[in-house]
Amino acid sequence: MNTPDNLRYTKDHEWVALDGNIATVGITDFAQGELGDIVYVEVETLDETLEAEAVFGTVEAVKTVSDLFMPVSGTIVEVNEALLDAPEAVNEDPYGAGWMIKVEVSDTSAVESLLDAAGYNALVA
């Protein structure tokens, strides 16, 4: 399982990369592995301001549909449109091409309260 040290993680298996006040969000390598082949990603919350732990979309795999949860509060400013045509990018490159949303974070210190790689690895072990 790949868990990059430079990211933060949630108990709901989302990862966060913060650049200034913009957070890129996706699901972890562990999550995509548990879901199996991802066939559809739906995010209809562009330009919406959501609180941490609110549902921002869903990911559909062959076996199941799972909600996607906001790791921190903020406004969704971008959605990875490439996933509409190639949802399998989440399986192939969850920390790169498989990112899902970009969020303008209301309080960047909230990212620091998320799990680090070691904490996330302990959670899923």
Radius of gyration: 13 Å
CATH topological fold name: OB fold (Dihydrolipoamide Acetyltransferase, E2P)
End-to-end C-alpha gap: 10 Å
Mean pLDDT across residues: 97
The tally of domains stands at 1
What structural category characterises the helix and strand content? Answer: alpha+beta
Extended strand count = 9
CATH-derived architecture: Beta Barrel
CATH homologous superfamily classification:
RNA polymerase II/Efflux pump adaptor protein, barrel-sandwich hybrid domain
**Count of individual helical segments:** 5
User: How big a fraction of the residues is strand?
Assistant: 35-45%
* H and E string: EEEHEEEEEHHEHH
How would you explain this protein's 3D organization?
The structure is a single chain. This protein is an alpha+beta fold. The chain has one domain: OB fold (Dihydrolipoamide Acetyltransferase, E2P) (Beta Barrel). It is built from 5 helices and 9 strands; from the N terminus they run βββαβββββααβαα. The chain has a 6-stranded antiparallel beta sheet with strand order 1-2-3-9-8-5. A 3-stranded antiparallel beta sheet has the order 4-6-7, with no helix packed on it. The longest helix has 8 residues. The protein is globular, with a radius of gyration of 13 Å.
